[in-house]
Specification:
By secondary structure, this protein is of the alpha/beta class. It has a domain of 121 residues: 3-Layer(aba) Sandwich (Trna Endonuclease, Chain: A, domain 1). It is built from 4 helices and 6 strands. It comes from Candidatus Thermochlorobacter aerophilus.
């Protein structure tokens, strides 16, 4: 009888050990599965961030492509600037410090004026402040045009009223989508140079 009891205990212990072993295997497989899922999710997150970045860049260039022909039109119709040179997404290196460069969203050069455009798909105060800070330095990048009047235009598909007021206070034209085409929203509020 005692031997049968021992045999039962031994069998129970073996079953318990087998159950523990199976449980450990399950835990190990679960950990591996979680690790693989985590790695897959991280990869998917990186891919999604990349796609969002590409979409944001595409949106930015799309807005620039809408703005560009309108810069030509307003330069001529509103400011009387006859185009000599026009470029979109033009990168200019500083003439004396090649490590400094400026990316002009749209730049129209006339005989006596430069229409300097900054285009953003979304308007932010910091974007406007950066543009304000750049305007006085434009001739550092374009010294061959020193002395020409600068007509600064900040463009987006939509510019909220508070930003139009801020641009106006800083003598920068605000260009956004109107009913049919892009319009200068504060043309009458800024004296012509």
């Amino acid at each position: 009888m005692e031997q049968q009891e021992r045999e039962k205990e031994r069998q129970a212990l073996l079953q318990f050990q087998q159950s523990v072993s199976e449980f450990q295997k399950s835990v190990s497989e679960f950990k591996q599965s979680v690790l693989e899922d985590s790695q897959r999710w991280e990869k998917e997150r990186r891919e999604m961030n990349k796609r969002w970045g590409e979409l944001a860049n595409k949106m930015g260039t799309l807005v620039e492509d809408i703005v560009a022909p309108n810069i030509r039109r307003v330069a001529k119709e509103l400011f009387g600037v006859e185009e000599i040179d026009f470029s979109v997404r033009r990168v200019v290196h500083h003439p004396t410090d090649k490590s400094r460069l400026k990316d002009f969203d749209a730049l129209l050069i006339g005989a006596d004026a430069i229409v300097l455009n900054e285009t953003k798909s979304t308007v932010r105060q910091s974007y406007i402040d950066d543009f304000i800070a750049f305007i006085p330095t434009v001739f550092e990048y374009l010294p061959e045009h020193t002395g020409k009047r600068v007509i600064p235009v900040f463009s987006s598909l939509y510019i909220p009223e508070q930003f139009v007021r801020y641009l106006t206070a800083n003598k920068i034209y605000a260009m956004a989508m109107g009913d049919d085409t892009m319009e200068i929203l504060n043309y009458n509020e800024i004296p012509r140079p």
